[in-house]
Amino acid sequence: MTSAVGSTPSGAPTRAGGEDRQAPVRPHRKRWGRTAGWLGWLWVLPALIMYGFFVLRPLVTTVQYSLYRWNGIGQAEWVGLHNYLTVVTDSDLLKIISNAFILIIFFSFVPVCLGLLVASLVRRLSAGPFGTVVRTVLFLPQVIPLVAAGIAWTWLLSTDGLVNQILRAVGLGGITRAWLGEFDTALPSVGVIGTWVMLGLCTILLVTGMSKIDPALYEAARIDGAGPVREFFAVTLPSLRQEIGVCLTVTIIAALASFDIVYISTSGGPGIQTTVPGLEIYRLAFSQRQVGLASALAVVLMVLVLACVLPIQRLTREDKA
Amino acid sequence: MPDFSTRFSRRRLALLVPALTAGLVMTACSAPGSDQPSSAGSDAPVSTELGTGPITLELYAETGFPLVKALADEFTKQHPNVKFNIREDQFTVITENAPRVLASDNAPDIIRLPTMVDLVKDDLLKNLDPYVTAYGWDKFPASQLVQLRLADGGAVRGSGSLYGLGLGYSVTGVFYNKTLATQVGMAKPPTTIAEFEELLAKAKAANVQPIMQFNKNTAGINFPHQALQNQFGDPTQVADWIFQKPGATFDTPAALKATQTIQRWAQADYFPKDANALDYASMVGEFQKGNGLFMFNGDWESGNLDKNMAGNVGFFLFPGEAAGSKHVAMSAPNTFGVGARAKNPDAAAFFLNWTHTDPKAREISVTVGGSHPGGPSDLPLPTIAEGTVLSETLKASQQLGAENGAVDFTANATGGIFAAAITPEMQKLVAGQQTPEGYVKAVQAEYEKELSR
Predict the structure, then answer these.
(1) Whole-prediction pTM value?
(2) Which residues of A touch B28 (CB under 8 A)?
(3) Which residues of chain A are within 8 Å of residue B419 when distances are taken between CB atoms?
(4) Do A178 and B415 lie within an 8 Å CB cutoff?
(5) So what's the ipTM on this one?
(6) I need a labelling partner for A276 at 20 to 30 A (CA). Which of A24, A64, B131, B153 fits?
(7) Cβ of A102: how many Cβ atoms within 10 Å?
(8) What is the pLDDT of residues B63-106, one digit of tens each?
């Protein structure tokens, strides 16, 4: 960007740099080159200001608040790392954090595995009108606002909801229950909603990834006598490394930072069975007015997200060498 | 394919480090929060004149309750120089927003209040004592305003300066479905807890849902729990605990017995099986559909039930252990206060006084709000059609006033007790994941934790 034209020496006299710069043409070009560099920054300046104001500044203030005991209005009291100590020792908060990790199974691993399966099946159909319909249906959960999805699933999973009606119709009336209201089933039920939301995104990403795999690879595999399963593990899976990386990254962040689905479907209950860090941060800060503790939990959550996502980034990065 | 590279190039680092440092320097210089300007002293001069100049009152109210809008419209009709700018939010949202909204430069003149202790501690609410003298609110029955009084500094409720008034004074009890009542052989409302429990058993035997109660995002089963707790011991103990009097505890024999009863009812399936997945609106909807003999709720639903279950719904105050025992019920003002930074505090107080004393306003309070309008006891109550559940709740409210049996809600004891302890622990209790002993101890532990902050 900064290797502008003006800086390249040409056949001009080189005796004195100062005089050089006063020459009629080159100084102008040189100045333009430097300006072009700064002009580039000028274009991104509005975005940088917004980023700094709405992302970096809150990030810094969150870290700062986490070191105080503060109700959000009155004078804050410096408590150092005490809030962090609470986060890592309070049994309720630890359970809340572990809930988020259980959700990773539903938000992340299940959709990616199912997505691979569905994508392999859909890939062959993707050209025809049937393929378009399948893609649309699969992608639908991404378009529907999560709040609406949460409400619809609350109806589906209620005692008289569709899920229980179907179970009764097929003679499984004995296992019907208030799926979102019982201690054993609430978290998995929330997880199922997450799977439903994330599956479409993963499938579409993986189908797109599959479409760019060189058909010659499949041909070669087939000549070597590979069946569909072998083909999948030898060709499809390795070629989709980056796409899988993106799917895992996006869905793990969604699981750890989940809020809306949980807030709408269970509000964190029963007990704290489905409470996740996102919900707890909001409650601590706004209902219980413990802004410091909420900030500490937020910082811990950010660290956890990075700790989960960074290794995936390393593992799935394509070797450029 | 988006590049999610996380390797920090030197250039990125060169940008990030100064940006973060600058941010830290900008914010870390001072501790967050600041001292709020103190609310006007209680001896500052106040006026009871509305004047004729144009005034716009900023009003922050709860959504879903048409009372405030109806009162504001009538007030503007009577006093055309006063207009209202009404902002509405859900109650939980107001609870979360109140401190910040009251601390802002655009603080509302009149605000629907959640628990007020923290707000008074932070000097965000106007002390209404000067208006008490100016308008003669000291002639209102003392029990009407006791919940709105706070001792100096906001430490203890129940005595001290006045910080709010009610737009209606609610009473809670038990609504019942008259058709289902006949079906299970209930000729008249029960007069003892034992009779009430007999009816629950009869309903269960007749395959009728005995109690329709929600327990999802906020513990609705706390209504029957406190109804029992009020009767099993001295209700003053309950009130002292809510008012944060030193030494008060939730861990009492009465609370334990109430919790044991609730657990027994839950085990007997007197509550809906999916109570933990039912929210307030679903509960009311199910009750209106005829699913449930009883519903513990407040008079704010009277108007709605009269409309949707006309003639088929009754109301009674929860009975005591012995026939003829004094009635005690959760009853709280629909509390409104004046912001410490309000631009028109005098007009706000004028409006609050008007809602208690103007005949038309009192009528609106009853017909639209469904609750007792409060005010001086010598003012007549508006007449209500007999046979409506509204007339029954209004009578119950008067009866409670006469027996001096109003107790605030345990959920109002501290800002966080409902969300942090009562709701999750009550959900555990009815699901069999918590013992009654564990319940009362957990609630008390959270209470102490909050008071120590």
Answers:
(1) 0.82
(2) 60, 64
(3) 283, 287-288
(4) no
(5) 0.80
(6) A64
(7) 16
(8) 888 899 999 999 999 999 999 999 999 888 888 889 999 999 88
